[in-house]
Amino acid sequence: MDRVSTIVEQILQGEVRAAARLMRDLDDGIPEAREVLKQLYRHSGRAHIIGITGSPGVGKSTLTDRLIQYLRQEGRTVGVVAVDPTSPFSGGAILGDRIRMQRHALDEGVFIRSLATRGHFGGLTASARAVITVLDAMGKDYILVETVGVGQDEVEIAATAYTTMVVTVPGLGDDIQAIKAGILEVADLLVVNKADREGASRTYQDLLQMLDLQSIRKNNAWRPKVFMTQAKEDQGIQELLAGVREHRDYLMKNQGEALLAARYQRVRQEFLELLKEGVFRELVARITDSGLLEEILQEIVAKRTDPYSASEYLVKKVLSF
Amino acid sequence: MDRVSTIVEQILQGEVRAAARLMRDLDDGIPEAREVLKQLYRHSGRAHIIGITGSPGVGKSTLTDRLIQYLRQEGRTVGVVAVDPTSPFSGGAILGDRIRMQRHALDEGVFIRSLATRGHFGGLTASARAVITVLDAMGKDYILVETVGVGQDEVEIAATAYTTMVVTVPGLGDDIQAIKAGILEVADLLVVNKADREGASRTYQDLLQMLDLQSIRKNNAWRPKVFMTQAKEDQGIQELLAGVREHRDYLMKNQGEALLAARYQRVRQEFLELLKEGVFRELVARITDSGLLEEILQEIVAKRTDPYSASEYLVKKVLSF
Predict the structure, then answer these.
(1) Which of A28, B313, A30 is CA-nearest to residue A7?
(2) How many CB atoms sit inside 10 A of residue A80's CB?
(3) Are the Cβ atoms of B38 and A308 closer than 8 angstroms?
(4) Do residues A116 and A189 both lie within one domain?
(5) Which residues of B touch A118 (CB under 8 A)?
(6) Where are the beta strands (DSSP E) in chain A?
(7) DSSP letter string over B26-66?
(8) Do B141 and B16 sit in the same domain of this protein?
(9) A-chain residues within 8 Å CB-CB of B174?
(10) How many Cβ atoms from other residues are within 10 Å of residue A154's Cβ?
């Protein structure tokens, strides 16, 4: 068996060290790792992917921590991808949170990978997807993807999960209004965390009302549900997980019609992102080597052309078919 | 004079309504607006662009508000681009902040544009750059670009300013460590805001120490400076602005050698971003029309290929030269 096949076999067996090494190699842009990823792809598609997003400080990591705990109690295996610079999973946050996370570190049924910056692989989204594919091929039952809902990339990553949770807290006030446009429309489940705080039921009601007003939905057949939790105090998690299952059941109805549609969307986005990075990388390599890039830049700097015209010209020139 | 030339003329005269309309049209992807932008480009390059970035809640908007105030007192005109969903400039934040902002709304010397989501123009970065070009062509002396330092895009936008400020507050603790890697290395000036809080001098010292340790710099000749401010109480702003000028003077030394280098970097990044969006858009349009995209997606869904192999195949096929 060649090296690539050996690594593929190890990953499919769920070997933690092989997976960790592969993810590192993918980040470093090692070609062999990419070959492994290609072969793993056909073994992916079984895990249920849950996106968890929201502003910094709403308690996404504590919630993630609790979800791991409950899923493990049911005997499910869990993969975690943290794309959040404020997450303790990614090395951020205060000491107490980090210690809380530690309890999963020695659990063989949990694999946590944090992505703080772009690796060689391409964008942050591409890196996250690659990690999800590996975790999926490893046989993880659930994959939790924690992202901070501020950057566009981060929201997109969460939105490509099968079930997307948007987390908020009481008293963010106008902030909810501000983020609504970008984030609420990707939510399958809405979570009001720290629900012991003043104004929790008000926030709950506000969210329900927004859902009533909301017309543009990624899937009109599912009406998002709102949950109240206190992740730190271990309150409301079971109800939230029941909500995840309800959404999953919805996806599975009619021979999994909605799930197939969601999968198709995931595949479409993943392919287009890879294409975008791939075509750009190859194009830049070629125009750098040929000196064309330098020539164009000098023209722009000298104001003999502008970047808009120059890029339009080049696009027409290089796309041949 | 044709319509495009008329609009160009209006923008160069600094007409606020024409500028607002143009920015809207650019977002909506109106071809005429793009033609205007092309012609404006050669009139840009005079404004001093200042990037202001940092985590949510550190007071970036209040600081921006103060900088506007001081620059206006000196008779400078100011453009503001807010790419920050938590900024009151963009409609976020609490009522008090918003009221504070209002005082600049009627000042003809200040033009504020917020970018909450991607427009038709391409990425968020492309939209921000287009707005900066328009403000620059309008003749604004200073352009302040406020972004939340969480998403990669947002950090990149701030990093392409001539002078980049990274704002923090005392007591963020490990968070500073967490964001350090991505953000500190783009900083020309570091600001400890809310400097009346406990631990301010400790944070100040920590930052100085980090700067000592830091070896990778976008420009080794400039050593970043650290400032203490209390934006709300109007403390330390003058010193900070003196820091901006010192950095500007540094850029202008030796016939503006460092400034030219910074401009070249800006042009390079801007062109490459436009190229990336442009080539991708055109490519997707063509493979959608020809049915090739659908064909490939069906192959991936059926697991007869994987997105990595399929994108590599297509990249080779379409790039002709």
Answers:
(1) A30
(2) 28
(3) yes
(4) yes
(5) 152
(6) 48-54, 78-83, 110-114, 142-148, 163-168, 189-192, 225-228
(7) HHTT-HHHHHHHHHHHTT-S-SEEEEEEE-TTS-HHHHHHH
(8) no
(9) 91-95
(10) 27
For chain B, the domain total comes to: 2
User: 3-state class of B246 per DSSP?
Assistant: helix
Q: Are residues A86 and A230 in the same domain?
A: yes
Is residue A148 classed as helix, strand or coil in its secondary structure? strand
Tell me, yes or no, whether B135 and B242 share the same domain. Answer: yes
Average pLDDT over residues B170-198: 74
Q: What is the CATH number of the domain that holds B139?
A: 3.40.50.300
In terms of CA atoms, which chain A residue is nearest residue B277? A276
Question: Which residue of chain B comes nearest to A317, CA vs CA?
Answer: B321
With CB atoms and an 8 Å threshold, state whether A86 touches B55. yes
B55 plus B122 within the same structural domain: yes
d(CA A171, CA A174): 9
Q: What is the pLDDT of residue A299?
A: 96
Q: Do B317 and A321 touch (CB under 8 A)?
A: yes
Q: Is residue A24 part of a domain?
A: yes
Q: Are B192 and B227 in contact (CB under 8 A)?
A: yes
Q: Cβ B308–A263 below 8 Å, yes or no?
A: no
In chain A, which residue's Cα lies nearest the Cα of B314?
Answer: A275
A274 inside domain = no
Residues 6+ apart with CB under 8 A from B141: B47, B48, B71, B76, B77, B78
Residue B96's pLDDT band, with cuts at 50, 70 and 90, is low
A181-199 per-position pLDDT tens digit: 566 778 899 999 999 999 8
- Chain A residue with CA closest to B95: the answer is A174
In angstroms, the Cα distances linking B93 to A74, B98, B99, B147 are 41, 7, 11, 14
Measured distance CA(A177)–CA(A213) in Å, rounded: 13
Q: Which residue range forms the structural domain that includes residue B26?
A: 1-43
- Kindly report the pTM of this predicted structure: 0.79
Euclidean distance between CA atoms A211 and B274, whole angstroms: 36
Supply the pLDDT for residue A116: 66
Confidence of residue B178 (pLDDT cuts 50, 70, 90): very low
CB contact under 8 A, A271 and B301: no
Structure-block tokens of residue B20: 């607002």
CB pairs under 8 A between A and B: 215
Confidence of residue B216 (pLDDT cuts 50, 70, 90): low
Cβ <8 Å between B267 and A34: no
In a domain, A60, yes or no: yes
The predicted-structure confidence for B125-143, as pLDDT tens digits, reads as follows 888 899 999 999 999 999 9
Quick check: B272 and A283 CB within 8 A?
no
